[in-house]
Amino acid sequence: MTEQPDRSQPAATPQQRGAVDLSALANSASAPESGASGGSTWVTRIASEAELQQVLQLGAQVPVLIHLAAPSNPASAQIDQALVPAVDARQGRLVLAQADTEANPALLQIFGVPAGPVVVAVVGGQAIPLLNQPAPAEQISAVLDEVQKIAVQNGLSGTVAPFAAGPAEESNEPALPPLHAQAETALGERDYEGALAAYQQALKENPGDDLAKNGISRVQLIQRTQAMDPQAVRAHAAENPEDVQAQIDVADLDLLGGHVEDAFARLVRFIASHRDESREPARAHLVDLYAVVGENDPRVAASRRQLAMALF
User: Fold this and answer.
1) What's the total number of domains in the chain?
2) Are 248 and 203 in a shared domain?
3) Whether residue 43 is found in the same domain as residue 94
4) Which of 1, 149, 156, 229 is the most buried (most CB within 10 A)?
């Protein structure tokens, strides 16, 4: 474990001293292709801020570990020897991104870290320092257990697909349709208008394209929240509990930051307590947030049941 005691407690809450708010960075789509080989893996390599943003999007579902590596330092490779198999053993309940900070020092600045190697966990939009030196496999496993406990407290209890699949899985994995691939590329380049146009064209060509609908909702969420000041938005909502748009804005921020159940619950509560014209915008927006998360997510199913009770 790290020798910096005030920044290295894995069991601390995301609001602990040393946490870095990364909510604004979680503004892209799917994760980049992995550099790993051989079998399914939930470990990927990143080389830019854009790729970091792509991985952080997964923080809406699972904890994201970032190894701010220094390849010239043997400690980085030693950390990975224990960390990589521990991550893959959890079968998508968390993911790991390996960042070469010697090739791109700007990645260190994002986390306020002077030098690698350092491993941080991003949970609910907050970065929690974990370790900066090699540790035994059993100790790393215990650290990951604590990260998952924090994740559950933040409503993150799902799983994600691997970055790279084994041979049997690859043979069954269809390639992205051209317009979807175009949209994902645009997202990686922060060309949100281009991504939205590609998804909208895909939906125009196939009105039953649920993935395109999901993509549109994701891009629109990113666009809505880009210029928001989170503190101001939350303060306004607290002072104006009857303002439907204020509650919608906070729900958007919650969802982007990985607080999926909080986002859903806020709008369900508003709908349950309002019988006027403000109810329908809240309901329609909640349904759009369901599309962002995905209809197969158990949190969506649970919230739909709560919404039905709130409406009748």
Assistant:
1) 2
2) yes
3) yes
4) 156
**Does residue 168 form part of some domain?**
no
Helix or strand holding residue 139 (H, E): helix 137-153
- Encode pLDDT of 143-182 as tens digits: 998 998 888 877 777 788 887 654 444 444 456 788 988 8
DSSP codes, 248-273: HHHHHHHHHTT-HHHHHHHHHHHHHH
Q: Classify burial at 13, counting beta carbons within 10 Å of its beta carbon; exposed 0-12, middle 13-18, buried 19 or more.
A: middle
The CATH number of the domain where 292 resides is what?
A: 1.25.40
Separation CA 25–CA 242 (nearest Å): 30
273-284 confidence digits (pLDDT tens): 998 999 999 999
Tell whether 185 and 288 lie within a shared domain.
yes
Contact indicator for 256, 26 with CB cutoff of 8 Å: yes
- 214: domain range? 178-311
Q: C-alpha angle with apex 202: 58 to 57, nearest 5 degrees?
A: 10
Q: Is the pLDDT reported for residue 7 higher than 60? A: no
